[in-house]
Amino acid sequence: MAAPDRETWGPGQPDQPVPPGRPALICEDGAVTLDAPVGGPPIFDANADDVRFPVLDQATLAELAEFGTVRELAAGEVLYRSGAEVWDLFVVLSGEFQVVRDDDSQEVIVSYTAGQFIGELGLLTGQRTYLTARVVRAGRALVIPHDSFRRLMATKPAISDIVFAALIARREALRTSAAANAVRIIGSRFSPEAMALRTFASRNRLAHIWIDLEDADDVEVLLASMGLRPTDTPVVVTPNAVLRHPTAGEFASLLGLTYRPIPGRIFDLVVVGVGPAGLAASVYGASEGLDTVSLDAIGPGGQAGASSRIENYAGFPNGISGGDLTARTAIQAQRLGAWLVSPCPVSGLRLEDGFHVVTLTDQSEIPCRSVIIATGARYRRLDVANLELFEGNGIFYAATELESRSCAGCDVVVVGGGNSAGQAAIFLSQAGCRVSVVVRRPDLTATMSSYLIDRIAADDHIEVVTETEVRALEGDGHLEKVTLEHNPTRVRRTLDCTAAFCFIGAVPATSWLGGTVALDARGFVLTDRMLDRAMTDPVFAGREPLPFETSAPGVFAVGDVRSGSMKRVASAVGEGSSAVRVIHEYLSRYA
Ligand SMILES: Cc1cc2nc3c(=O)[nH]c(=O)nc-3n(C[C@H](O)[C@H](O)[C@H](O)COP(=O)(O)OP(=O)(O)OC[C@H]3O[C@@H](n4cnc5c(N)ncnc54)[C@H](O)[C@@H]3O)c2cc1C
What we know:
With 591 residues, this protein is α/β, with parallel strands linked by helices. The chain is 24% helix and 24% strand. Strand 2 (25-27) and strand 3 form a beta hairpin. Helix 8 runs parallel beside helix 9 (322-335). It is globular and about 80 Å long. Residues 1-38 have low confidence and may be disordered. It binds flavin-adenine dinucleotide. Residues 272-278, 295-298, 301-304, 306-307, 310-312, 345-346, 374-377, 419-420, 423-424, 509, 512, 559-561, 567-570, 572 line the site of flavin-adenine dinucleotide.
């Protein structure tokens, strides 16, 4: 890879100065970069040795010919503009083609010549492009339309591997370079609205830049240059649109990532919830030929996406961040043909004319032949008076790179004594925070794995505060102080605290089911052998429920949401995968 010829500092060098008068732009990986200069050489040198920019040989080009048609292109012609839906793969046969940021900068991202192809991961995810592709030297391109591209990816494994590796690597390169300037989220680090946009962008691994209003004096100048004021924030700015105070759904809609009803289409499988269980179901559903759509209220990842490091997932001896694990699986599912949609909260489920109908909060309806419930669980909220004032701007339910950036080097509180709390405490300490772990029990032994207890004990920056609960939160616009009460003595003390991370037990995300399937006393979904005959659909008078099947025939539940499940990433993945095998049986015998 050619090093970007601009000032870029990695996240491990927090003390690098940002020159006065220029706003700090934070790439999603935490790298600090300055806005790109106008024009200049391409950011990336499309070197044939680089996995991102392969040059296909003549034999491969000949194999590709049957998938597309050749187009003659004149210098200056535009292949596609930012904001367009791009489903076609363009393979350059001759001439030179540039990908540029189509805004004031007109910055050239990369230049392609014969044997190379244009595009990035959006070709698989359906994301509208935020870059423009144009012809600089007249030539010819093989244009492979979307359906043929899918057929190509499914039937030519050797070519598919080269293309896929390049698409993934290009997205990573775009996310962590000045190219990400094409999509800007501008707002305050203390704004919950901004946090929701950043979470959506981060979960979906979107190339984007975060511009923090708190970081530089002259952000107002930047905003004014776009006709905006600080009161308009958070804003999302792309080369072709400006969204003031958008929701994550509106942002997704701008990028073409929302659910678009397709009249007459009946899916074989709708997966509700795209955490580890739903992701595994998506991978197996799509790979085993089921027409699969997977919907998540926030974005792919689930609780695992909230974990900085998972150490007990087989195959990753050094651990892996939950975000990386689930992002890889999401791409895998999409490569295999699953349609992943977020943010897409599901509000209901019913049976109609023999089909299941999944309802979204915008009242869209998705008919399907089977459903997997994989909505997992979410962490309980603290029982304190003004909690909602600080949720998203000091109170967090995840401890990843994203949240840690708003409190690096500060005093923080982690509430809870389970493994999630332990992982969070260690991660935050490594991010330079002084951490108070607040637990109700006299110690951690009953609730936390010993390897985490040992690490916490050895860490000078972590204090465990036992038999204690959070009683009050204070702050002017964002969290500044937390009051703790020692239960046996009722003694209270107030700590300076920029952020409190809550991991105090999970509740199942089943309220959307509205009684359509039987739940246990705690609200988890009952399946197969756990079902009492009296609870089940009359259908089950004639047959036993299949493994993972709920009280409603053809509706299955997997992962943390399922009563009696193990509440771990590996078990969620195992259940999601296994359920697809059972769905095949259901569809062939009973649907
Ligand atoms: C901080 C943290 C650290 C952890 N560390 C580990 C670890 O090291 N090892 C380990 O094995 N486990 C760990 N866990 C537990 C593990 O992450 C969970 O067991 C696992 O994620 C469960 O997967 P799931 O797919 O069943 O549900 P979830 O991960 O809970 O995913 C459910 C998904 O459903 C979506 N959803 C909910 N309601 C709706 C709706 N109405 N419409 C649409 N979508 C909806 C949510 O947005 C979410 O994305 C950790 C959990 C946390 C929070």
